[in-house]
Amino acid sequence: MASLVEKVTRAALRLVAAQSPEKAGELAFWLFTRTRSTKPQSDKERKALALAEARMARSETVRLVIAGSVVATHVFRPQTPAPGGQKVLVVHGYRSRSDHMIALADALVAAGHTVVCLDLPGHGASTGKTLHLGKAVEAIDAAWRQHGPFDAFVGHSFGGPSVMAAAAGSILHVPQRRPDRIVTIAAPSNMADVFRWAGKLMGLGAAAQSAFERQVLRFAGRPLSEFRVDRMMHDVPVRTLAIHAEDDKEVAFSNAEAIAGIGPHVRLMKASGFGHRRIVAAEPVIQAVVAFLGEEGRAAEIVGLPLPCSSEPNRLTASEDRSVRRLA
Questions:
Q1: pTM, 2 dp
Q2: Which CATH code for domain 43-190+229-318?
């Protein structure tokens, strides 16, 4: 059942669309990209942040300026850099923050890597009220100029298409920043799916939906249709590991299959049973990321990670799959 806020938003957008679908599309994009409060939204999140607080306090925080935001980067360095140690950029998802990536960062540091965790605009310790793929790539570019070049990118959920867009140079006004390796975790593969989900949530009609999607051209210099993984990465053969849970109810597993379909340089790893958010702190997933960054080249393959329980994951129907997509 739609909340009162959703009902009011839909009614307002219908009213605007009756006068100007273009204005309705612009308003929908403004609403869609508006970031929310960075305060914890639940007791569970408050506890998670409290557990990460001491470790985050020991990082070196460097703030960088981009248009409309001051983004925070958190640098974690090994006490003794290992031979072959790499510099890794870790990017969280929508409505998340670097604190939630601390277990992964610690494991990478223990393996001798230097890790930079980026708080996207309007998230964590970063300022700003707007986040879209263009802003995310601008923030990644700022981190690259300050701390890079990076050997590897790791992106969870919305952080996945963000690091791939940065590696591909998909945002025309931002230089291409291409690492040697990329890890995506529970990442969407086609931003058009996200826009369709958002448009349905806001009750947009066909004309307003088209105007909503055209806003991408304004900030990226490319149409929304270009922001699917096979088009962004078709000539960028960066060795990639795509990790995803088959029971992810926010971003369907088919997205990982699409990423793996780019070419033989991509490996697909199933991490079923860990859902969409718990996956970033799951020990088998962390071990897989550390191993991937430390290994020599391997052929593409599908690897099933151990399940935390013996139950079979629930499989979604096609209609259920479409209804639960998120920008997260």
A1: 0.88
A2: 3.40.50.1820
